[in-house]
Amino acid sequence: MIEVEQQARDIFLQALELTADRRSAFLEQCCALDLILRRRVDRLLASHTQLGSVPAQPVQPPESDADFEESIGNYRLLNRIGEGGFGNVYSAQQTHPARLVAIKLLKRGMDSQRVVARFESERQTLALMDHPNIAIIYDAGITASGRPFFSMELVDGVSITEFCDAHKFPIRQRVALFLDVCAAIHHAHQKGIIHRDLKPTNILVSLHDAAPVVKVIDFGIAKAIAEPLSDQVLQTAQHELLGTPSYMSPEQASDNNTGIDTRSDVYSLGVVLYELLTGSTPFNSPSFRAAEAVEARRMVRQLEPLKPSSSISSAEDLPTIA
Known about the structure:
Helices cover 39% and strands 18% of the residues. The chain is α+β, with helices and mostly antiparallel strands. Helix 1 (2-16) packs across helix 3 and helix 6 (171-190) runs antiparallel to helix 7. It has helices spanning 2-16, 20-31, 35-50, 113-128, 160-166, 171-190, 262-278, 286-290, 293-302, 308-313; strands at 71-72, 75-83, 87-94, 99-106, 137-142, 148-153, 158-159, 193-194, 203-208, 211-216, 223-224. Residues 50-63 and 229-239 have low confidence and may be disordered. The strands form three sheets. It has a six-stranded antiparallel sheet, with helices on one face. A three-stranded antiparallel sheet has the order 7-9-10.
């Protein structure tokens, strides 16, 4: 992993010498399909530019992003790095203190009482957390246009499955990372919070001093076990799908999922471990992948998933599974 960091620094220094039109082709050639290496180089370039060592180009909002605001308080938005049902996530440069952060910003037109309450609930949920494997919240407020936002730790990483495959981690190292995920979720449960959307893309891994560090993110549909976190009660509409069918428990996949508890997160953790060890989720048939949400939920409730050993023995891409 030290080699990856050194390689990223070397590519970064070479990229600085190139014009913008040549830099893109150079990065494509050097990084190829190595997502982790490319993201580390991109992050180095972004940090270098924002700190002023290289003439910074004005930030231009993506043409399709009507929610973009160039500055929010002492934050300058850079790029959109994520999108949810009611909020977008941007990388941003904070002025005081000087650091890169992530900003979650409520989408325009999503200011109904229920959505604003859920957004506030996520902020309060993150504020309760104090664990090295859960992304930290820094600040919160309202933009000049009246939209709620909060800033949080910017996690420079990829999903746990991508990371393990890219580094060809054996089973022991995969399980070691997974135990850190379990510790983070245990902490959330001790704080009275159920995540409800545990999946690899919400479990990021990055390198710190050449060691892999897990961060659990996106508590956007988290649920308080005992009482609502915000003053406004969050009522989940009947039949509203919260979560991802491939990773949700049968109880969460039911039409009335209001009674789920911490065991639903434990089930989802089991699915993540299953994927880490076999390369696929328990429900991964063509019919499941093609199914509409309602049908996928029915299959999760009623069908028996393949055992991990059966999933491995029947995998068509077995030679390529790390």
